[in-house]
Every structure is written in structure tokens, then in C-alpha cells.
Automatic annotation (TrEMBL):
Residues 4-104, 247-353 form the PH domain. It is a peripheral membrane protein. SUPFAM superfamilies: PH domain-like, Winged helix' DNA-binding domain. GO terms for biological process: actin cytoskeleton organization; intracellular signal transduction. CDD domains: DEP_PLEK2, PH1_Pleckstrin_2, PH2_Pleckstrin_2. GO terms for cellular component: cytoskeleton; lamellipodium membrane. Keywords: Acetylation, Cell membrane, Cell projection, Cytoplasm, Cytoskeleton, Membrane, Phosphoprotein, Repeat. This is Pleckstrin-2. It is found in: Cell projection, Lamellipodium membrane; Cytoplasm, Cytoskeleton. Pfam families: DEP, PH. Signal peptide: none annotated.
Amino acid sequence: MEDGVLKEGFLVKRGHIVHNWKARWFILRQNTLLYYKLEGGRKVTPPKGRILLDGCTITCPCLEYENRPLLIKLKTQTSTEYFLEACSREERDAWAFEITGAIHAGQPGKVQQLHILKNSFKLPPHISLHRIVDKMHDSSSGIRPSPNMEQGSTYKKTFIGSSLVDWLISNSFSANRLEAVTLASMLMEENFLRPVGVRSMGAIRSGDLAEQFLDDSTALYTFAESYKKKISSKEDISLSTVELSGTVVKQGYLAKQGHKRKNWKVRRFVLRKDPAFLHYYDPSKEENRPVGGFSLRGSLVSALEDNGVPTGVKGNVQGNLFKVITKDDTHYYIQASSKAERTEWIEAIKKLT
């Protein structure tokens, strides 16, 4: 990394005038977040824009877009709002952590508090959020939504925050209330649950990283509609469910060369095992369906030379490239954002070929 760069990588940004979503290369410095357009696998200088962090407020998680649960919202001193989407919860939290640190650089106490939050409870590897939500929907032992009143209004099919905390502990998903609150926050961040009513919505709007989910008998929550959509969508069932049933091993934004036009586009890649597949998604689209993918069984993966443009690559695209050749001899040219990231992807794919 260059001097003074705290973090860099791809994020998907909402446009200011036309609210479309585009992948941009972001570079975080002590007081500024710069973003660049990408052409031919390279960032175009000068930067397309800059976000001044002095006096900025950050909201993470930001639940303003139901189909984009991995958002960070930044609001500048001049009240300009920026919506940035990461490729995973871990990556979103890492960006939020670094950006918050840059905003509060002059307040050591705040930065120390962030370090404590960053190193707090992690979901045990044998428990998946999907499994927890499936259990929550169980008709005999799950959470039973019912009508609840708050400030004179009745909300159908809701449950109270403290009841969910009790349920997570009693079902051994959490050891104590603090862990259960963190787990409930994860479920909310990943769009399985959503806040309902004044009390729980207020906690989200406050933007306090520590107080997203309320262990409270007056805070109401419900199952997010998107969970039901995921179960009943005919389109999702028509896509090979076997392909998408594997465990996610790795995910991230990478640039990929198109097969026909040979142009380079940023895609969100998701690597799964059992069965081994590599799928890629268009981050500018809201629907969570792959635009392509292939089986890794019998595939070959290798790094490409960093000096000069390798054979098969169109345009002046150099550095951090690798190639996957599938069993049916289809060649995929992919570019990572650093040598280290390229090595991580190659090692992860090799284990599954």
C-alpha cells in the first residue's frame, strides 16, 4: 500500500443524481475517502470523487435498501449522503471500522472502543445464520410472531427483542445476553430480521455500532420479507439449487474479462464447496442471482505473469492476474486487487479442483 493509505479496495457506490449502483475503487486516507473509475482493469486518475471525512457521520449497518443489506452510509458536514456496499459482512465491518477510525482520529478513546467492538464475539464456525433462521421458523420450537402494541399502534406478526435474546440462549446459540444481542444484530444486518416501530427503528437511526439490536421488552422486530421471498421465488428454484447449496468458502470483488467483448467488469465472486463452484454476480443489480458460474471439478488455476500483458488478455491490463481453465476448456481471466489477494484466491480454488 502507498504511504498514508489506511485501506483500499472495491466498493459499490450509489450515484448522486441517477441512483444507479457502480463498482468503484476506494482509497481511504486519514481525512479523505477517494474513489476512482475503473477502465481496462486499471483505476483512472485523477479520482472521480472524494468524500471529506471531517465532521462526517457513519451508519453501519444501514438498512435503507432491503435488497442491499451490506451498506455503509456516510453523511458529510454539508449533509451529502453516500451509500457504499461491500461484498460481505466482514468486509463491510472492516471498512466501517477503518472509516470510523479516520473520522475520530483525534479521539483515542473512541478508537479504543472500536478496537474492543472489532474483537468481540464471532459466530462459531459450525453455526450458520441460515440454520438459526430455519430453527426460528420451526412451528413447534421456533419464535412465534404475534400482534404487539407500541405507542397506540398494533404491529402484526412481531416479537420483542428480549424474547429473541431469551430464545437464542435457551437454544444454545449464545452463552449469554451480550453474545445473543450480537448474534441478533448479525441476523438483522444480514437482512433476516428487521426492526418495526419507533423504539427499534430509533436504535438503527442512531447509528451507534454497539446498540443496533435492543434486548428490550418494548423493541419490536419481525422476519424480513426477503427471507420469505428467498424461500418461494420460482426463479431461484429454476436456477440449479445444487450449485448454490454449497458452503461459502470465500467471497470478494474481482475484475473479470468478458468472453465475447473482452471488456473488464467488476463482479462479486463467491466460492463454494460441497459442491465446488465459483459463481459471479453483477454488483450493480439488486437481485441476488449469479450472472455466471462454473464447476471447479477438474479445473486448473494459475497466476499470470506480472510483466507485460499475458496472452489471451485484451487491453493494457497488467498485474495480479490469474486464469481458471474449466474441465470443458473455457478460459476465465480474473484480476485481483493485490498480489496477496491473488494468492489467497488461487490457494482457495486449488483446494477445491
